């Protein structure tokens, strides 16, 4: 069974290792101690927890299920269009929209915004082996 160190689980969930430790200590996320006394989270348990977080955050107000909250890092405007970049955790999301929409939303660096994505084509990749979390 694949297991993850606390720091690896934190990276995958987009939170700090301290947050994952608090969830484990509170019994919200199961973890076992390995032979060295380090806490490890089972892959299936981590997936179930991640799914519960998604379900809890899903407001049901939209058919789009890919929602990334982040901070606007750049807005490039011309006369008609605007390019808006959002940093959502380790992810960079770029949106092209009308300048009017960007102006009405008052988008500028430092504003918190949600990038809501609906796509019919999603590419799934496996990370290279040097970046895959260790596990058994």
TrEMBL record:
Protein name per Swiss-Prot or TrEMBL: MerR family transcriptional regulator
Organism: Nonomuraea cavernae
Biological process per Gene Ontology, one example term: molybdate ion transport
Keyword Manganese annotated: no
Boundaries of every Mop domain copy: 61-126
Domain HTH merR-type: 3-40
NCBIfam families referenced in this protein's UniProt entry, alphabetically: excise
Any one GO MF annotation of this record: DNA binding
Superkingdom, natural source: Bacteria
InterPro entries, sorted: HTH_17, MerR-type_HTH_dom, Mo/tungstate-bd_C_term_dom, Mop_domain, SinI_DNA-bd, Transp-assoc_OB_typ1
UniProt keyword terms in alphabetical order: Molybdenum
């Amino acid at each position: 069974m694949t297991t993850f160190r606390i720091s690896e689980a934190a990276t995958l969930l987009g939170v700090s290792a301290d947050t994952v430790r608090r969830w484990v200590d509170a019994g919200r996320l199961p973890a076992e101690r390995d032979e060295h006394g380090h806490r490890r989270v089972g892959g299936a348990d981590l997936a179930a927890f991640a799914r519960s977080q998604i379900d809890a955050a899903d407001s049901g107000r939209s058919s789009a299920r890919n929602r990334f909250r982040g901070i606007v890092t750049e807005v490039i405007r011309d006369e008609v269009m605007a390019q808006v970049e959002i940093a959502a955790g380790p992810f960079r999301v770029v949106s092209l929209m009308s300048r009017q929409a960007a102006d009405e939303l008052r988008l500028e660096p430092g504003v918190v915004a949600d990038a809501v994505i609906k796509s019919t084509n999603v590419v799934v990749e496996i990370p290279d082996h040097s970046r895959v979390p260790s596990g058994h």
